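Figure 6 in text form: structure in, sequence out.
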């Protein structure tokens, strides 16, 4: 599992050094995570595997594209749980996503 939440320098390089644009994209990601966390929680409670898989897949891609690698890894694991119809350990993964979300929000406040 990835230790570092975000590879900011690599993401910045991929965007041609446009720090303002990167921060805007990270804010958008944060908003997407906030919008979808309750839906993921509901999918887990109701064992709606397809919805869990779909939501996690979308957020995995969004976070991976911005080099928010630890969060992407957690969403990848949630997506896998949905695919396998096995939610064992999913609550722990969801808590890790929430921790990642809070860490990303704190990072953006500092920048």
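Output sequence:
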């Amino acid at each position: 599992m990835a230790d570092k939440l975000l590879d900011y320098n690599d993401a910045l390089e991929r965007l041609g050094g446009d720090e303002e644009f990167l921060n805007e994209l990270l804010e958008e990601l944060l908003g997407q995570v906030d919008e979808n966390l309750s839906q993921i929680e509901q999918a887990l409670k109701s064992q709606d595997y397809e919805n869990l898989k779909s939501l996690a897949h979308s957020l995995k891609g969004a976070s991976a594209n911005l080099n928010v690698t630890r969060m992407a890894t957690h969403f990848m694991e949630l997506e896998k749980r949905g695919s396998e119809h096995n939610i064992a350990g999913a609550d722990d993964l969801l808590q890790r996503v929430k921790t990642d979300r809070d860490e990303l929000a704190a990072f953006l406040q500092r920048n």
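Caption detail: Residues 18 and 85 are 41 Å apart (CA to CA).
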